Amino acid sequence: MFTTVLSALVCFGLCQQLQSATDTPDPGAKPLSNTADGVNALLSITTGLYNSAFGFDSLLSTSDTSFNTGVGAGTLLLNTSSSNTAVGAGALLSNTTAGSNTAVGTFAMFVNSTGADNTAVGASAMLNNVDGFQNTVVGTGAGPGMILGDSNTYLASRLTGSGPQTATSVVSSTTSSLVAAALL
Fold first, then answer.
1. Which terminal residue of the chain has fewer beta carbons within 10 Å of its beta carbon, N or C?
2. For residue 77, what are the contacts with CB-CB under 8 A and spacing of at least 6?
3. Does any domain span residue 10?
4. Considering its fold, how many domains does the chain have in total?
5. Tens-digit pLDDT profile for residues 20-33
6. 6 is a domain residue
7. What's the rounded Cα separation, in Å, for the pair 62 and 35?
8. Distance CA 121, CA 136 (A)
């Protein structure tokens, strides 16, 4: 009986030490209203406000911009603009001066640098967009050929090309509208 109680006390003592161990290094103090967790998260922040970075190198280059959220390693890595949201490793990694983008999925909008007002949902969605704006892409790998397209909607997986495309819904662009019922 004594050894059982002693074993339990030792176990509880060790559990306390394990609970107080940190999973990630503290990135240090950040300016008022910014939150960061992960190695180099919000490393360059100076005067920017209301930014949240969670993951290795998340929002690494952000210094004086505001209202950005990065969740995942390398999200918004090169970002110097405001009002972007990236969730998933490498999402919006190359984004520099473009604002108001939302990328959800691993490597979603990975190459985007100056394209603004875009939404990409799905792993590698709108992967190669550089400066297209006001596009909506939903589906794994959807819109890989869109580099400069404006006002397009992609609703399917693995569609290719640079013009308006769809698998099941309406697609519009600045130059045309298309309704397609057949799969491409």
1. N
2. 57, 58, 59, 60, 61, 93, 94
3. no
4. 1
5. 445 556 667 788 89
6. no
7. 13
8. 8
